[in-house]
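Thanks for the sequence, V.! I ran RNA polymerase sigma factor, sigma-70 family right away. Repeating your input here for the record:
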Amino acid sequence: MSRDQAITLYQPMLHAIAYNIVRCKADAEDIVQETFLKWLSLGPKKVEDTRAYLIRAVRNNCLNHINTLRHKKEELLNQHTIAEIIGRFKETSFAHLDLDAELAKAMKILHAKLEPLERAVYLLKEVFDFDYEALQDTFDKKKDHCRQLFCRAKKKLSEETAKLNFELPDKSTLLETFRKACDFGNAAELVQELKKDVSDAASKKSE
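Predicted structure:
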């Protein structure tokens, strides 16, 4: 069997093995490609059982990949602030390593420590790079007021969180719209959800 024939024959099987381990199609494809490149570099006489070698190599490469992602995730969670955890969520595919759980925890901290308007200003500026003029237009608040809200939010979030109760109600609607905004790069739906949050809070205060 030629090497081209071996690649054609074993590629679907190796993709299936890799995907079942890493649970990410793009990562699985990259791992299989890297495995084939390494195999091709060994020379035709270096591997006696090509099928067994490729399966073993793909599995090992998948485990190495997962360990690398886990270390990156641990570094992210240990060394970065809540803002960076939330911001990096839209850049990094860690869903299969439970970053979703950390994101939910971060959102609960935001709900516990910030008022609705503070939370809205903080999320849009810190994560989606809204400037103060855009925030002014969005919430009909002066730029200086938005600046104060943002600074106040950062200060509150820098305070101790260890004593917070994380069995807080799950704000699933806001969390889901946040995920969509990150996935599709469009914060319009999130802005509407935040404005509704602010409006609801104002209505309760006036009752």
